[in-house]
Structure formats: C-alpha cells, structure tokens
C-alpha cells in the first residue's frame, strides 16, 4: 500500500498513528484469477480495523478516480469500486487463544515429563528396604507408616489401638526381641542422620510397645539440645538427664511416671552448655548403667548424627542403635555419613527403621512381604510360610515375625 493512500486514510479517520505505522498493519493482495483486491487490516480494536479497511477502500477508489480522469474531464478509462465492505470481525485474529493454549499445553507436558525424569534421576533419597539394608549393612527391622494423628498426639495408646502404625510398632518390638537372642539389647539408642526424621516419636512408641508387652521401660531423652519427650508426653521438662548429671537432683527425683503403665521417663532437663561433654562423661555411663539395672529396657532418644556427636557418644555406651531413615526424605549420603559416625565409635547397629512411610489407603499387610525381600504368598496357600533363602540372621528372624504375626512372642500374649 502506498504512502499517499496510508496518509489519506490516517487523515480521514484522524488516527493517532503515522502513515508508516498504518502500512505495517495493512496488507493488500490480489486474488488470483480475479481483478479483486483483498485488504487485511490488523488493529487492536475490531471497530477501528473495520473503519480503516473501509476508509482505505474508499480512498483508494477516490485516488484511482482522480488519477484516471483525463484532464479534459472526460470519463475515466478505468475505475475501481468497493465490491464488499469490511465488517467487524467476531473473533480476534491475534492472539490465537485456542492455538496458544494447545501449544502451551504441549510444551507444559513435555516440560513436566522432563522435570519428572530429571527429578527421578537426581532423587537419591532412600525409598526401598534393599537400599536401606545395603547402606546400613544391617536389616530393616521396622517400617513405621506416616500417621497424621501422631502430629497431634505422638504417643500411641497401645491398649486401645490396632491401627496400622500400632501394628508396625508391635512388629518392631518383636524383631527387637529376636536380635542377638543370647544377649538381647536392652539399652537402645534411637537416632537418625537429620532432624525431623521421626526419632522422638518412634522412640516413645517403641518404649510404649515394649511396655505393652509388660516390660518395665524407661525412656531417656538424650537429645539435650532439642528435647521433645516432655512435650510429646505432657511431662515436666525442667528436671531430667542433665539435672541428674550435674548433681542437682537424684535419679529418683528426676524419673517421672507417665499415664502409660510400664513407662517411666527421664526427660532431658535444662539444656546444658556442653551436651557432648556431659553425655561422654563417666557419670552419664553410670547413669545409663543404673537405669539398665532398674528397667527391662532403656530407650534413649537422641540428637541427629550429622549435626553433633551426641548420639554417637550415647551409642558407644549402649547395647545398640536403631537407625531411623525417613522414607523418601533421608538421602543416601546422609545415611552413609550416619553409619560412618556410628562405626567410628564402635557403636553396634541393631537395625534400620523406615519412618514416616507414606501408605496408600489403609496399611496393607502385603507390603511387609516385599519389604523383607520376600515374595508375597498367595492368599489361598495354607500356613503362610515364606521361606527366605538368605542367610542374614536378622532377616530370617524378621521372616519368623511375619510368619507368626508377632503376637505369640510377647509376654502378655503368651501369658494369656
Ligand atoms: N509416623 C509418623 N506419622 C506422622 N507424623 C510423624 C510420624 N513420626 C513423626 N512425625 C512428625 O514428624 C515431625 C518430626 O518428628 P520427631 O519425632 O520430632 O522427629 P525427630 O526427633 O527426628 O526430630 C513431628 O512433627 C512429628 O509429629
Ligand atoms: Mg527429636
């Protein structure tokens, strides 16, 4: 389109743009095999687009008439007419919403899949018992499901609870009783590599599960930096482990009975300035020794292994350690470090435990089989006895637990 025509159109409509700008948004094309000229106008206002198209055509007609009329004033040799006037378009031509949505969607899907694959490749969290056993070099002795109720009330009321999580702790209890049968561990440190992996919640419920089986259990809050046992069990936190170690209270004064039969608690006491030193002291060893004499089980909650040496120090003086790994959160290298720090003090690792394991719907028993690396037995087969061909004693024990559903090994159950 010519500059003159554009300028005439701009003038006629009083448009707020230059002729050059208008030219950019107008295309005129000759329709093949006809004498028709198609005019396309692009404008953000559909009404103005129509007006421009129409004015442009009118001005073109006028221009041609002016140019073709001979000076004599005779009729022009050729003329142009407007064959069809422009109308207001129903839909905008740009943006092409539908097409853009489709392209966006396709790109989104491709990007999403890419991201998922990438995350999967980058994900080195521990999510299966095989990996957990491989890294820790010990058996998986428990698998504690995620249970939202535990956020509100960490302690499970075992006398009235047969939910999946209560069963998981009973199973863990049974497995514990199988570990080194000749010399069963009684002073057990519960730890993990990082904070918030369920140590404290799990420690409390291991203690409660043991108490349910009529054992006399003491829970010691050995996390002198971020103690939680008193909060989780609604106890007084001021007098406890550190208080006894400093000599400000006797053990008898510091031990607290709980609302649960068979469970006594030694909270952390005031946070001391030198937890590691305190935990490594002779007094601490003597204290644990005294507790061992008074109770069937001493369950010691602790600080995370990768943060401070506290847990490793405690573990060195205990019969063994249960290492928690939060399902899908704890990373391989964190576990490797944790195991390393336990090895460096010569602390015996009793077993690994998955915590906060997401469950699909209700807790199904089937996963217990795959979880111990065993084929799931057919429902129809009598006397479900999956046979393990692996020689690891911990795993065979675990298998026996599954076989006999654990109950017969508890004092209370067998006494009945
Ligand atoms: N089995 C579980 N199901 C649901 N939430 C849990 C479970 N175990 C722990 N939690 C929650 O996870 C958080 C960290 O637990 P906690 O036992 O304090 O971990 P840690 O002692 O390792 O820091 C808490 O909010 C706790 O309520
Ligand atoms: Mg804790």
From TrEMBL:
The keyword Transmembrane helix appears for this protein: yes
Write out the transmembrane intervals. 101-118
Per UniProt, the ranges with Basic and acidic residues bias are 401-416
Under catalytic activity, the entry for this protein gives: L-tyrosyl-[protein] + ATP = O-phospho-L-tyrosyl-[protein] + ADP + H(+)
User: Its GO CC terms?
Assistant: plasma membrane
* Start and end residues of each AAA domain: 187-324
**EC number(s) per entry:** 2.7.10.2
Q: Which CDD domains match?
A: BY-kinase
UniProt-annotated stretches for the region Disordered: 375-416
Q: Which Pfam families match?
A: AAA_31 (PF13614)
GO MF: ATP binding; identical protein binding; non-membrane spanning protein tyrosine kinase activity
- Keywords noted in UniProt: ATP-binding, Kinase, Membrane, Nucleotide-binding, Transferase, Transmembrane, Transmembrane helix, Tyrosine-protein kinase
Supply the InterPro entries for this chain. Answer: AAA_dom, Bact_polysacc_biosynth/exp, P-loop_NTPase, Wzc-like_C
Q: Which family does it belong to?
A: Belongs to the CpsD/CapB family.
- Listed NCBIfam families: eps_fam
**Designated name of the protein:** non-specific protein-tyrosine kinase
